[in-house]
Write a structure and sequence with these properties.
Blueprint: H1 2-8, H2 13-66, E1 81-84, E2 115-119, E3 146-152, E4 158-164, E5 167-174, E6 176-182, E7 194-205, E8 209-220
Antiparallel strand pairs: 1-2, 2-3, 3-4, 4-5, 6-7, 7-8
């Protein structure tokens, strides 16, 4: 009789409290695992996006640098012209710009100055369908000076810009911490017609985690001093 009555009373308050506590703990663990999985997924997506953007930017720059080279008929040569952190000088002073803000710290793989570039591209100037002159046989060079520089936008994000004659900036890609162009003067391992390009991407995501992507390539220009 007493046993039947106790069974009909159901769970006690203590038992319900313990059950609720266990349920809360289990749910907290489940939601914690879900949040961690979502964070890992979002981080992976963001990192993949950074790498993809860097690759597209590098492809664009490479295509244009392949059409560049030493401009023999320009008294203000040499091209390409390399300069550090916006400090363009002399004939190239109109390419000057304030240096980008560095978000990296000493010891970080993306820490260091930007080495930027100005160049001219081969262009069919006499409309004969060729990039060489019909009279001299020399490469025809377009008049525009193309530059790639890193600046800090108003929102504090560093971005890579393509400019023409120092003006008309077009954003190529954002979250560029550093870009480095090298020629045989700055890297003895390169030949006279080669340009090395290194691009460092950097983006901070919640909760203060820094994501980095790094890509590099070496491009052969159309000509060099040695070929003339």
């Amino acid at each position: 009789m007493n046993k039947s009555r106790r069974n009909n009373q159901g769970y006690s308050i203590v038992e319900m409290t313990v059950s609720m506590a266990i349920l809360v703990i289990v749910l907290a663990g489940v939601f914690g695992a879900l949040n961690a999985s979502r964070s890992i997924f979002q981080t992976g997506v963001t990192l993949s996006s950074l790498q993809d953007q860097a690759r597209k930017a590098l492809d664009q720059i490479s295509r244009e640098v392949r059409q560049s080279g030493t401009v023999m008929n320009d008294p203000y040569s040499p091209y390409p012209y390399l300069f550090v952190d916006g400090n363009a000088e002399g004939y190239y002073a109109h390419h000057w710009h304030p240096p980008a803000v560095s978000h990296a710290s000493p010891g970080d793989p993306d820490y260091g100055p930007n080495r930027e570039i100005v160049f001219r591209m081969a262009q069919d100037m006499d409309d004969d369908g060729l990039l060489t002159s019909a009279t001299t046989g020399e490469i025809e060079w377009g008049p525009a000076q193309i530059s790639y520089v890193v600046i800090t936008a108003d929102d504090g994000v560093n971005e890579l810009q393509r400019r023409i004659n120092g003006y008309s900036p077009v954003t190529v890609v954002r979250y560029v911490e550093r870009i480095v162009f090298d020629d045989y003067h700055t890297d003895p391992g390169l030949t006279k017609n080669q340009i090395s390009i290194v691009i460092h991407m950097r983006k901070t995501v919640r909760p203060g985690r820094v994501l980095r992507a790094y890509l590099s390539t070496t491009v052969n220009m159309r000509n060099s001093w040695e070929e003339q």
